[in-house]
Amino acid sequence: MADSRFLKFFNYILLVEGNYSNDKNDKGGETKYGITKERARECGYKGNMKDLTKR
């Protein structure tokens, strides 16, 4: 049950946060899939945020 609830909300996040964004009014800066550039770097991602994939 918990797994299905997680997947439901995770898929919703991907739907609403799935596009690349760099809104000057959003203090998160560059984001894709709801992941900020800062957090992506902390996790070892070194590429362009526009190129970030789901896998």
UniProtKB/TrEMBL annotation:
Residues annotated as domain TtsA-like Glycoside hydrolase family: 10-54
Matches recorded under Pfam families: Glyco_hydro_108
Signal sequence extent: none
SUPFAM superfamilies reported for this sequence: Lysozyme-like (SSF53955)
Name of the featured protein: TtsA-like Glycoside hydrolase family 108 domain-containing protein
